[in-house]
């Protein structure tokens, strides 16, 4: 029995009852002979309350102080969890990100982990303690300032510690039963996936699936750490995410892992761009200078008569305004004709490593959409993903049609709650 | 203009408004050319709320985890204060006790400071920042665990930092205007003291005055740091506490500094103790083994006929039960006759270095009490203090009579709020 890292999100430790329930689950793993390291987020709404306080004292709180403030949240939940575990007769010690050796760069509010030196954690578990570590936080290598890791930070802390401690598995406890073949709120017959390859999970994460964030899966893939996403409310097996299937997992990958959708993006079309070298570069330099991350990019073949082409890309809806002003400023330099902005769009993505060797997938996908009366506006593909942009009000219908067409529907209706993993 | 350490208690930073008011005051000191280090307590009720949470998860929280939990409180207030100061256009950085170099022993919940290595604080203020330090907390020298300093901890942090940074003054901001010649809730005509010698302040603190705790005054006395106790609500000069008066302060000490009273003690009498060497030692060894701190001790001359004597001592009322059981267990070994316990008592103390050279003080004191019809049950004196134990229901009358008798009454009625300094 080796070392297990367990991560519990804010909804799992929202109150004293939740903390006691988590303590029981941790003790169970300990009783089964594992060494256990637990990573916790802040309790329920603590972070929101702290942010509210910050806004009351300053309209633009400094990054360093904001991190100092927010990290109080995990300090509370981790100390309480340690007390609850000790109350069950097992030894436990809590550690801040800094004490746990989570070393980051100095970018406050969204620091990146650059090293993990878990000497104190190793000693603590070797002495028989459950080690509890504050998620989401670290200490900067140069200035020794407290940093936070930004969105999905606690999951990343868990995976990083699992890698540094050479853990058997990193268990991510959340409020859903695992990763599903589609969002169960949309597709009643969505099935829980027992095992999914890391690369498929990465594509799902960047296509709108919210159970695991891309960043955390990428970290786990790089260090070959199996993730087990499961519910902190049920005792059920969840979804295993790993580079290769393990002994008891299917050796052959599913053709299609799942259907993801995303309604948080908008579509920008730059109309009438002169079709000559360097024009597209100017456009995307302007977008990049505005610090906007774009997603899909499509350029049509230019019309022979005019020598002009259209370039379309998608980006987070929240960056729409910024993108349009950035482009307006380059209008003369680029020489395009006009801009179109559309945020009534949705992206539907089909993900599966199996599609590499199965030529019929694209046809089946598009036929399913067509039969459902859904018009495709943009297409973009990777080796293991096909994404289309459609009208936002057709998204549910489209996801259901595709899910059925690829035989992903389960036999029974599942009743599950589906939600984000907090930070 | 040198370095100033300012300490603000929990009531001064109870909400966003309070924090902004404190920020303004800090900036004022900065504008006057001072380098400023600020020590803050947790906001208002934060500590109580955290304690409540701890009690919900465990009936007997571990010391280490309890300290980890409680220290979240200052983390919140200090980060918010830093944001509020930056919002006023001045640079500020917050530091945990550990970052500020407050090194303690390993006694959780009531650690003692054993060293202060304020290198980061010095650098921060030298770079032009206001440095904000979490009060009440430190890090243990051996295990590098987070510790808390117990009651009055934030005041002690402030004085310790002032000493380590060779500050001009340690300003303790509270919700009263300073130290008074008596508790203004009892004596309407009590006067604010402009300057008081450290040794007198020490006696007042151990006699029931709650504005400054003994521990913090003792630390300041040892390192010769002047303390200025003042209100965070008014801009008025408060009370200076120092070993020697400064240039603008009266060179000659007042005869009497003030009258303190304390109703939190109880009186235990061990009746019929054989008057021979070693008996008293046995009694107080039993009390000490029970970890009870006693205050006054009085032994009457033994009655010649019986060879028996009575030993009376006072102790915190909260330890009364424990003391009685400890003594009951030694009854046979000591051979005393019986025990009497009385918690309807009050201690009234007259403090003033002037009494060393003024033989009439004791007489005036007792005459004042006698005229007020107050019976004295016990008397105990130090070089600069005379304490008496009387009936609890006569304490207000006694304090007023003594205050008047020594000419301490002010000409006008003062209207002030008097309260504790939190931690």
UniProtKB/TrEMBL annotation, chains A, B:
Task: Give every ACT domain span.
Answer: 268-344, 350-423
Give, as in the UniProt entry, the pathway in which the protein acts. Amino-acid biosynthesis; L-threonine biosynthesis; L-threonine from L-aspartate: step 1/5; Amino-acid biosynthesis; L-lysine biosynthesis via DAP pathway; (S)-tetrahydrodipicolinate from L-aspartate: step 1/4; Amino-acid biosynthesis; L-methionine biosynthesis via de novo pathway; L-homoserine from L-aspartate: step 1/3
E.C. code: 2.7.2.4
Provide the alphabetized UniProt keywords.
Answer: Amino-acid biosynthesis, ATP-binding, Diaminopimelate biosynthesis, Kinase, Lysine biosynthesis, Nucleotide-binding, Transferase
> Is ATP-binding among the key words of this record?
yes
| Domain of life the protein comes from | Bacteria
PANTHER family linked = ASPARTATE KINASE, ASPARTOKINASE
Q: Which Pfam families does the UniProt entry name for this protein? A: AA_kinase, ACT_9
Which purpose does this protein serve, as stated in its record? Catalyzes the phosphorylation of the beta-carboxyl group of aspartic acid with ATP to yield 4-phospho-L-aspartate, which is involved in the branched biosynthetic pathway leading to the biosynthesis of amino acids lysine, threonine, isoleucine and methionine.
Q: What class of enzyme is it?
A: transferase
GO CC annotations? cytosol
Amino acids binding substrate: 47, 74
Q: Which organism is it from?
A: Streptomyces xinghaiensis
Show the InterPro entries listed in the entry.
Answer: AceGlu_kinase-like_sf, ACT-like_dom_sf, ACT_Aspartokinase, ACT_dom, AKii-LysC-BS, Asp/Glu/Uridylate_kinase, Asp_kin_monofn, Asp_kinase
SUPFAM superfamilies in the cross-refs: ACT-like, Carbamate kinase-like
Q: What is this protein called?
A: Aspartokinase
* GO biological process, any: lysine biosynthetic process via diaminopimelate
The reactions it catalyses are: L-aspartate + ATP = 4-phospho-L-aspartate + ADP
What the record says about family reads: Belongs to the aspartokinase family.
| Amino-acid positions noted as binding ATP in the UniProt annotation, renumbered to this chain | 7-10, 174-175, 185, 210-211
> Which Gene Ontology molecular function entries are recorded, alphabetically?
aspartate kinase activity; ATP binding
């Amino acid at each position: 029995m080796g070392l297990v890292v367990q991560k519990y999100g804010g909804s799992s430790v929202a109150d004293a009852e939740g903390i006691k329930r988590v303590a029981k689950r941790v003790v169970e793993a300990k009783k089964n002979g594992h060494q256990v390291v637990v990573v916790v987020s802040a309790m329920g709404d603590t972070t929101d309350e702290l942010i509210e306080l910050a806004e009351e004292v300053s309209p633009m709180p400094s990054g360093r102080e904001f991190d100092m403030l927010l990290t109080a949240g995990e300090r509370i939940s981790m100390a309480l969890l340690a007390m609850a575990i000790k109350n069950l007769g097992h030894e436990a010690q809590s550690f801040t990100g800094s004490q746990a050796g989570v070393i980051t760069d100095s970018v406050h509010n969204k620091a990146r982990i650059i090293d993990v030196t878990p000497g104190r954690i190793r000693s603590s578990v070797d002495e028989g303690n459950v080690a509890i570590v504050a998620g989401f936080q670290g200490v900067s290598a140069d200035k020794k300032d407290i940093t936070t890791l930004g969105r999905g930070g606690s999951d990343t802390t868990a995976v990083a510690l699992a890698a540094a401690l050479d853990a058997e598995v990193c268990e991510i406890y959340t409020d859903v039963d695992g990763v599903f073949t589609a969002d169960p709120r949309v597709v009643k017959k969505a099935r829980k996936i027992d095992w999914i390859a890391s690369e498929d999970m990465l594509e799902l994460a960047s296509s709108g699936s919210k159970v695991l964030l891309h960043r955390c899966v990428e970290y786990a893939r790089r260090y070959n750490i199996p993730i087990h996403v499961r519910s902190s409310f049920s005792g059920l097996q969840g979804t295993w995410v790993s580079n290769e299937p393990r002994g008891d997992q299917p050796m052959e990958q599913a053709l299609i892992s799942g259907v993801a959708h995303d309604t948080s993006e908008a579509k920008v079309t730059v109309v009438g761009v002169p079709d000559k070298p360097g024009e597209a570069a100017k456009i995307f330099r302007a977008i990049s200078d505005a610090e906007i991350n774009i997603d899909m990019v499509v350029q049509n073949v230019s019309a022979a008569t005019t020598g002009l082409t259209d370039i379309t890309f998608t980006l987070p809806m929240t960056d729409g305004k910024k993108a349009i002003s950035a482009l307006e400023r380059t209008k003369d330099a680029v020489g395009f004709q006009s801009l179109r902005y559309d945020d009534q769009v949705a992206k539907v993505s089909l993900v599966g490593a199996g599609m590499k060797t199965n030529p019929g997938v694209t046809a089946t996908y598009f036929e399913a959409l067509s039969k459902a009366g859904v018009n495709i506006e943009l297409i973009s593909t990777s080796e293991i993903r096909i994404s289309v942009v459609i009208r936002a009000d057709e998204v549910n219908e489209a996801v259901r049609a595709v899910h059925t067409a690829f035989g992903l529907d389960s036999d029974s209706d599942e009743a599950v709650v589906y939600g984000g993993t907090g930070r």
